[in-house]
Design a protein that fits this description.
The structure is a homodimer of 245-residue chains. The first copy, chain A, has a four-stranded antiparallel beta sheet with strand order 1-8-3-6. The first copy, chain A, has a four-stranded antiparallel beta sheet with strand order 2-7-4-5. In chain A, strands 9-11-10 form a three-stranded antiparallel beta sheet. Chain A has helices spanning 25-33, 126-135, 140-151, 162-176, 192-199, 203-215, 231-239; strands at residues 48-52, 57-59, 67-73, 75-81, 87-94, 98-99, 112-115, 119-125, 185-187, 219-222, 225-228. By secondary structure, chain A is α+β, with helices and mostly antiparallel strands. In chain A, helix 4 crosses helix 7 (231-239) and helix 5 (192-199) crosses helix 6 (203-215). The first copy, chain A, binds a DNA duplex (30 and 30 nucleotides) through residues 160-162, 191-193, 201-208, 210-211, 223.
DNA sequence: CGCTGGATTGAGGCCGATCAACTTCAGTGG
DNA sequence: CCACTGAAGTTGATCGGCCTCAATCCAGCG
């Protein structure tokens, strides 16, 4: 969190296979297909691409909101700062996901964002985005659709027990990370500390529940490597329909 | 929750003072200003207005998402159902607020909605809304703005302690209900049970914290009547910057 | 090989849930 | 007007889950 931003700029000009799965693809796509000048509002253009090293920050709190950030590959955490200086993880963002919508209304980021590993980020100017959307309203439905989806993320955060929260978190991860590997087998991009901070529990509790889930043979976990052995049981655990004493 | 829907339909035709403060006003407004046929996509028209009696339901779980609902006056709670049949309050909606965005992506409501008191609701067909937005993209910015705002509601739900959750809830209410009365003095539209269900704590805990806040002379509360005596202290409590033993 | 930071495991304490009793309020009908 | 009734709210005692603090284990790395 003290590292300077390591930005490796490059202009996007070719159709990029790494855009597959990005929520902006149908919009952003046109940039690749169309032969277009910079002034043509009929295309959404990527302002730049940034490569963040691990722990590098994408933006800092109170920074004016000017861009949407699409994660091309890698992972980002957003961090809120409490009055007493404590840090709380606000959210995680993975390949294909977009940071920024929640900051439109205030025109300012109220949190910081940092890379969990080397991360490639597409920077989209919000004004360009608006211009594009006004010129191409046929994409509105698509944008509403994935904003709507984003509004439903993290429902498990308010679960009653720590078990349910963590189970919900793992289910969530398995669906959001599966592009990289098999759906039920993935690497945790973040530390136990970060998981705990996000779920509002201690890293110790995270660790204890992980070993408990392992003993029940619901998951196999060793440090950052996770394999979900009983996806259905895990899901039921998250929903509270089973307790397993 | 067993009462049938009591719907008193009436077509909106005149500029209505009760539209003041509604998040859709700048869009919906045009319906009043423009002399427009039903087929003119240049206006967003209210499909109908519904008057719900207390406890009447606006929609039920698994019902297809077809409309946005704007609360004209009154209050609505949305309810999730757990696997074991338990009910959890998912959210509250007050005058000027809009229900539905979070259900766009799935095309289905995954929860029910019920009136907390007599409530007037504007029904907006989502297809009409899309048509209007495509024809009038200049309103996009406004829509993104209040959807963005809605994404930031309920941050206090994930607070660590019950004190902070309830303090955050009261601060939230005071800002969202103040149209009706003075900002620091309002009636709770919902029961202790509902508050507890929403904040994921028991009604007993809600009650205990209320009396504790009263003893500290931070609020004055008697049943549904609330007066915030020390707004700043309450806010600091919600943010965790004070503890007050 | 030792160092360092993350992860795990253990013992004790506190916050909030649970269960139960009592009080107050709102609605109804006599 | 009051008596009755059921729902909602308050208050108290006990219990359990998670936090706290501390020690230990382990992987990665110079």
């Amino acid at each position: 969190m003290t590292s300077p931003i390591t930005a490796n700029m490059q202009t996007a000009q070719t159709k990029d296979p790494s855009c597959r799965g990005c929520h902006l693809t149908p919009l952003c796509h046109t940039i690749h297909d169309a032969t277009t000048s910079h002034l043509n509002p009929g295309s959404l253009r990527v302002k730049s691409r940034i490569i963040l090293q691990k722990n590098a920050t994408l933006f800092m709190p109170d920074q004016p909101f000017q861009h949407l950030y699409a994660i091309e590959q890698g992972a980002v955490k957003t961090i809120e700062y409490e009055a007493d200086g404590g840090e709380l993880i606000r959210g995680f963002y993975f390949s294909g996901e977009i940071i920024g919508y929640e900051s439109i209304y205030s025109g300012r980021f109220h949190f910081s964002a940092a890379a969990l590993s080397e991360t490639h980020v597409c920077v989209i100017d919000y004004r360009d985005f608006l211009t594009f959307m006004q010129a191409n309203p046929e994409y509105q439905q698509h944008v509403f659709h994935f904003i709507s989806m984003q509004m439903n993320l993290g429902a498990y955060l308010v679960s009653a027990t720590a078990n349910r929260k963590l189970a919900g978190f793992l289910v969530d991860l398995s669906s959001r990370l599966h592009r990289q590997t098999h759906r039920d087998e993935f690497q945790l991009p973040m530390s136990r500390q970060d998981i705990g901070s996000y779920l509002r529990m201690t890293a110790e509790t995270v660790s204890r529940i992980c070993t408990w889930l392992q003993q029940k043979e619901i998951i196999a976990i060793q440090y950052k490597s996770v394999r979900i052995l009983q996806p259905d049981t895990l899901r039921q655990l998250a929903e509270g329909s089973v307790s397993l004493e």
